Amino acid sequence: MRRLLLILIAVLALLIPATAAQAHPSGTSGVLVEMTEQGAELTLQLQLDQFNKATGMNLTATKRIPVEEIDQLVMESVQLSDESGDYATSITDTGIKKVNNVDALVVTLDAVAPGEAGPFTLNYSLLTHQLTDHLVYVSRIEDGKETDLLGVISANQPGLTIDEAAPKAGVATMIGEGMHHIADGYDHLLFLAVLLLSAPLLATRTAAGRRWSPRADGLKSSMKRILSIVTAFTVGHSVTLLVVSLGWITPPVQYIETIVALSIAVAAWNLVRPIFTNGEILLAGIFGLVHGMAFATTILELNLNTQDTLLAVLGFNIGIELAQLIGVAVTVPLIHIAATGNYYRQLRAAVAGFAIIASLAWVAGIWTDSDSFMTPMFDAVAAHPLLSYLVFAAAMLLLGLAGPKSGINAGTPSRAKATV
Q1: Between vectors from CA 377 to CA 374 and to CA 378, what angle results, nearest 5°?
Q2: Residues 380-403: tens digit of each pLDDT
Q3: Order of strands, edge to edge, in the sheet holding 120-124?
Q4: Helical (H) or strand (E) element with 153
Q5: pLDDT tens for each residue of 231-275
Q6: Do the strands 28-35 and 135-142 form a parallel or antiparallel pair, or are they unpaired?
């Protein structure tokens, strides 16, 4: 185990010079659209850390901002047009303000239609050109308060048609956003992956303390346990996702992100030495509460009213669960196969070591307002999901072929011999 951890640390050290990302790499921006008689007024809400990452300007709330440079960048990146031609746009205000308790660059634009105001297309590349995973939530303002989600702009979909009479984006849109969010949430995925690796095992008491033993009842029992883990995580994050999204509590983002990162380290330690019987189920439920607060930041950024918030939470939650269940379906059989081999203990130690390193790197990045050094690895996986899955599948199959564990394939083992 010690040798595997040393090798893992050496490999990760080679990646330190590279630029990296936070646990939630994509980031989000908000665009609020208010229809006017002449055209529209747009308010851009750009998280300051994301803006600095994309532009390298290093803006802060306490320093004078280069208004002319920012305005030029905005004008180059935001265009409105309709069948009659391009809208005439002008910037009316630029400054740094608090948006959902986070420093943000807020830019207001006035757009005048070339003819009679009506449906128009918003072409938007601000931040999404530099940050390919960045998402822009476009909402409609009515009566100066109520907003409806109109759609989402990304690097792959830079244009959005906006029609005052068009229905607002519904649950289906938020389902897609929930799936996208969990797919890009490296910390959430790593947390669940670490928990799922213990599913083929059984925590037992020995003279030396709690230890993992192979389960003798096969894949069916593993699937039940995995569903219990996912259900516990779902219940936990569903509660806080709703409570925070409705504004009933406002948790400090920095502390929440820190606890999310540290939850990975706790789960990793549990993977090596069980903290208590059925510990991964309890961990999933407890830390699901914290992860739900992190999920809620996406809903908060939409600035929706109560009814639309409930629908957004419903759709977002469904999307998260669908993504999790798909992940379980395509990975659990392979994990079970790997667990039948002779080297599953070493695999768990290596994954636990990697998870702890990633957790500490994220914590350091959160508190120093800088990037972690893990981006090359995570971004490579995100950029090539099919290839990454095939590599994972091949590794699990090879581990499963490397000699069967007697405790899984040959009946119920004795507790002393089965301890892993």
Answers
A1: 80
A2: 777 778 888 899 999 999 998 886
A3: 85-86, 78-82, 120-124, 159-162
A4: strand 146-153
A5: 888 889 899 988 888 888 888 878 888 998 899 999 999 999 888
A6: parallel
Which of 31, 123, 127 lies closest to 73 in space, CA to CA?
127
Half-sphere exposure of 402 (CA within 13 A, CB side): 15
Residue 279 CB: number of other CB atoms within 10 A?
20
Look-up: residue for tokens 């940050």? 131
Distances (CA, A) of 144 to 127, 178, 306: 26, 28, 16
pLDDT band for position 371 (cuts 50, 70, 90)? low
- Token couple for 328: 């379980």
Q: Where are the beta strands (DSSP E) in 57-101?
A: 78-82, 85-86, 88-99
Q: State the residue for tokens 């070591």.
A: 353
Within 8 A by CB and 6+ apart from 254, the residues are: 366, 367
CB atoms within 10 A of CB 161: 12
Say how many C-beta atoms besides its own lie within 10 A of residue 332's C-beta. Answer: 19
How far apart CA 222 and CA 234 sit, in angstroms, is 18
Q: Exposed/middle/buried for 294, CB within 10 Å: 0-12, 13-18, 19+?
A: buried
Quickly tell me which residue has 């972690």 as its tokens. Answer: 372
Q: What token pair was written down for 352?
A: 């636990």
pTM greater than the 0.90 cutoff: no
- Each residue of 297-354: pLDDT tens digit? 777 767 677 777 888 888 888 888 888 888 888 888 899 889 888 899 999 999 999 9
d(CA 70, CA 62): 17
